[in-house]
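task queued by scheduler; priority normal; single chain, no ligands, no partner chains; default sampling; output format set to structure tokens
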Amino acid sequence: MTIETVPPSIYAVLSEAKRQIGPIGKGDRNKEQDYAFRGIDSILNKAGPILTELGVVITPKHRVVSDVEVTSRNGARGYRVVVETRWTFSVSLGSFVTARTIGEAIDYSDKAFNKAQTQSFKNALAQVLSIPTGEADPDSESPERGEDITTAEQVLRVLIETHGFQREQARSYARRAMEALEVSHPLPKDEVENVVNAAVNIHETDSAPFEDKTEDDPSSGYGS
């Protein structure tokens, strides 16, 4: 008598990966703006070996959403790149699931696109695997507000008054933008414009159909 073993589906494998990975805290720190974040290496160092052991292969397909020239405070010229990536998480026998994430980066050399890809990959891993940070939810506290408008409210006002968002829509996209940029809470003043731009880009991406541009796709082969 022969007993056949059916390979697990990608959903079962990812569920097991989530169980083994557990929380990954924000152990890295941005020195310039002094906020904690969860770097790609922190995620890969813990998640990578587990995904490899479980046989998960991850492949990307990138699409450039925007690529604009920027100038630093010191006059240096660089680029701000926003990419949308369709990530495919697959296991044996063709069982797979896809996810789309946004990555944004600014660089004053030639690394803006690579940084944006890395940001998109980090978002995909964190969201697909539902990796918690182990920190308290911001909604668990309600600090008193003074008369001055908060930076979060500034973002909402710009999205509503300049870009025509509804208030709840503005809240949703502002939250997604802050998660994508991994900026601290409360929002630093110098991040207001970045969050607004990211929120608008994410909204535009949600509203536009995904285009398969294989010939122009500078995909890179990320693996688990």
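post-processing summary
- The helical segments are 10-21, 40-53, 112-128, 151-161, 167-181, 192-207.
- The chain has two domains: 8-135, 145-209.
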